[in-house]
Amino acid sequence: MPKKSFSVLRQGATVIDTYRFVQQEENAGEKVAWMCRQLGVPRSSYYRWRDATDTPTTIRHRELTDQVKTMFDSSDEIFGHRMVHTKLAADGVAVSVGTVATIMAENGWAARRMRAFKRTTIPGDPDKVFKDLIGRDFTAETPGTRLVGDITYLRTGEGWLYLATVIDLCTRMIVGWAMADHMRASLCVSALEMARDKGHLQANGIFHSDHGAQYTSRELGAWCTGNNIRQSMGLAGVCWDNAVAESAFSSLKNEFYHHYSFDTRQAARQATMHYIEAFYNRWRPHSHNDGLPPATAMANFNTQNQQQRAAA
Questions:
Q1: Which pLDDT band holds residue 158 (cuts at 50, 70, 90)?
Q2: Secondary structure of the chain: what % helix, strand, coil (to 5)?
Q3: Which residue range is the domain that position 86 belongs to?
Q4: Which residue from 21, 48, 205, 219 puts its CA 20 to 30 A from 140's CA?
Q5: Burial class (CB in 10 A: 0-12, 13-18, 19+), 97
Q6: 43-51 vs 15-27: helix crossing angle, rounded to 10
């Protein structure tokens, strides 16, 4: 048996992994006694495991373990047990949160977690601050009527890449985003233009932000006025007044960006776009939507609205 096999097995292997490995090598003609000595497991324990008769419970546990692993791997090892459970439930798998947590703990599968992200707010003109029209009520009955936005830094080998987002409060979908090597007001305007051009901004809608210079700028104010969008701002320096935008950036940094290194802004842009559009909007479950991804919640609302119009 090659030495490489032992080194691979030692990397986070459980006792069951070891037994399975021994069984595999036994089937290939290796001596059980020698393998058990080399791997440091009692031969009697291996035989007891090998000869045990599977019960319905053990079979079900094994099936669930495979399903949990598939879902955990498909998230690029991002999801914790609650997210994995939510996705399994959406696929019709009957399993409790506690069972998923136990299976993940047994196998050493843990969600990736990183440090908190750096805030990017550069104080703007206090005379251009708008009234808070949200009041920490981050809900909306209809998409496109109440939205929030913010900016964050993304480090690359070429320097900073700046990301501005627009998030729909009804579905939590990132309906507008823009990236550039600067954080001027035009960056935020570009994100709002994407939301508008995709049909995600309603007339007289509310766009909520912090007091950053970009959001108090004449350029963004003129754009909002010209597009019949009302601006709203929380208190200066109070992150809770824009909690949804802060939370989205936290997910992006913790689940994705901090785990990679990008040599160029273009590489970072492409990867971030994939996270937003393919993962966050269309695959990642969101608690606000009872576990549905934001894009699914948006599509369901639009379908229901069309049906109601047809029936009227």
A1: very high
A2: 50, 15, 35
A3: 59-107
A4: 219
A5: middle
A6: 80
Using CA atoms, how far apart are residues 209 and 220, in angstroms rounded to an integer? 12
Question: Whole-angstrom Cα distance, residue 50 to residue 59?
Answer: 14
Angle at 141 between CA 136 and CA 142, to 5 degrees: 115
For strand 159-168 and strand 146-156, is the pairing parallel, antiparallel, or unpaired? antiparallel
Q: What average pLDDT does this structure show over 205-227?
A: 93
CATH number for the domain that contains residue 298: 3.30.420.10
| 153: three-class secondary structure by DSSP | strand
Verify that 63 and 44 share a domain, yes or no.
no
What pLDDT does 102 receive?
Answer: 87
Contact 38, 22 (CB under 8 A): no
Which whole-number Å values give the CA distances from 230 to 28, 65, 265, in the listed order?
A: 72, 50, 33
How many Å separate Cα 282 from the centre of its chain?
10
Cβ–Cβ < 8 Å for 140, 146 = yes
Closest by alpha carbon to 187, among 209, 158, 156, 205?
209
Residue with tokens 């950053």: 212
Identify which has the larger pLDDT, 215 or 16: 215
Helix (H) or strand (E) holding 115: none
Q: Which residues contact 221 (CB under 8 A, 6 or more apart)?
A: 128, 231
Residue-averaged pLDDT of the chain: 85
**Nearest CA among 157, 120, 107, 104 for reference residue 265:** 157
Residues 6+ apart with CB under 8 A from 114: 253, 254, 258, 259
Measured CA to CA, the distance from residue 276 to residue 176 in angstroms comes to 10
**pTM for the predicted model, two decimal places:** 0.68
User: In angstroms, what is the C-alpha Rg of the chain?
Assistant: 25
How many other CB atoms are there within 10 angstroms of residue 264's CB atom? Answer: 12
Residues 32, 38, 43, 45, CA torsion sign? negative
| Residue 188 located in a structural domain | yes
Are residues 223 and 155 located together in one domain of the fold? yes
